[in-house]
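Cross-posting from the modeling subforum.

Setting up a comparison between two proteins and wanted a second pair of eyes on the formatting. Protein 1 (sequence, then structure tokens):
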Amino acid sequence: MSARKPRVHFSFRSPFSWIAMTKLLRAVPDLAERVELLPYYDPDERTTAALRERGADFHYQQMSKAKHLYILYDVRRQVRKHGLTMTWPVDVDPWWELPHLAWIRATELGGGARFYAGITAARWERGEDVCTPEVIRAVAEDAGLPGEELASAPGDPRLREAGTEALVRAYEDDVFGVPYFRIGRERFWGLDRVDDFVAALTGEPVPEVPPAPPAVSDLVGAYDTDTAGGCG
């Protein structure tokens, strides 16, 4: 059996995913040819039921208010550090299937990179609601893709199944937040692990890290009393 490609789990919801992907694409311009890109998003009731049928779950948990407030400050620091500009979007009852399933269809049509760039610009640079058909349609058409088809992506059972499969893969990769990278047995989580992932991806040696002894690994929650979600 051939080795699985490295995986990058990303989300249009997370500002850290956006910044990390920007940094990653600057370092590895041919990223899409080197890795498998997998969308990670909060599932709606239909997707949640499909995950349970597959014996999977969604590891991410909503964070505490204190952690949320910290992230608001930290994102501003990281945006300045990476030379980006940002407008905070205001999410009101977002439906994350819509942009992520639209991205899956855009990728099938050969325009995944253009659609990704358009969605992240709409959300993080202009503060638009990317969970509305109007924004999806406009971004798709600007990218030379069929707007109505992408805006209707959640209604396609085949794309629904593809989205569920991406979340099952996330469950199997132990993803609890994004950005999250997997290459072989190595796992990397967070913006500050991008350089380590790039090193592993481009062939630089990664030090072998011995597993924690059971006496430690069995103490779930012993070292972090907050939720597991960094930024989903």
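Protein 2 (same layout):
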Amino acid sequence: MDIEDIGPDAVTFCETGIATDDMYRVSALYMQFWEPVLGADVMVHRVFHALLHHTCRRLKTWQPDTIQPVEEYRMRCIEARRLFGLERSTDNRAIARALEPLRATGLFDHLDLLHGNHWLAWRFSDEALSMLLDNVQYALLDASILAKLTSILDYRIYLFVALVRRMRKPVFALDLDLLSEGRAQPGQSWSQLSARVLRALRTCCAHHDLAAFVLLHETGSRRGIDHIEVRLVRDGCVWSRDLLAKIDPEVRGVVFVDGDGHERIRPAEIASFIDRRRSAKAARSGRAA
């Protein structure tokens, strides 16, 4: 995991764009050490996020030293399914299968199904909750996007987008091995991963009104493209045309992504691509006026 611009002024005071009831957060510590080991079943990630969102909404503060209520947290399974887009299902067996891998993480004092498997009951350990709420660096999350996330890769990309999107110069880099983690065939090439990665980024861009320049790096750590750098553009960020066009010599290709789709561009043509988009936007605005 590689994140730039994490000093005290890294996060701007822009609007979050997240409804209060949908807002929750998770620390970069979780992303680095715990999320990659949750396993290959996307339902485990779905249930974890449902539990964390529910917990955050019931805490008085999100500080690492916050005191949890003595009582356990409880949530109807239908509420969890509705949160991650499976409300039409009447079967909680997939949720039940996700509980043992979650218990195995050691994050919970207990995690159970109650009342004929219709309710979830849990309590994070105090140490785990302190880690999850660590405020040195964290992702501010939006539960309303969860129904759109259908794979582990979707969740992984979203976490990184949420971690950096409010920074002055939002950027993150991911090794391809991290992107292929949890897949049936680890160590996949960029050509095998690209469609899923770009689709996940498009979902995030559409949800948060972002655009992304995906830089494909080849540094020799594996054959072909070995990691990607994602530069996010939003209103109020400090990415300029010249900064976006400034790239390292090992960049072999660039893909532009927004909520409408993606377009491949040559590294040397980033500046002219930006100019064309600005001209087209100005022309549309002129016609609308």
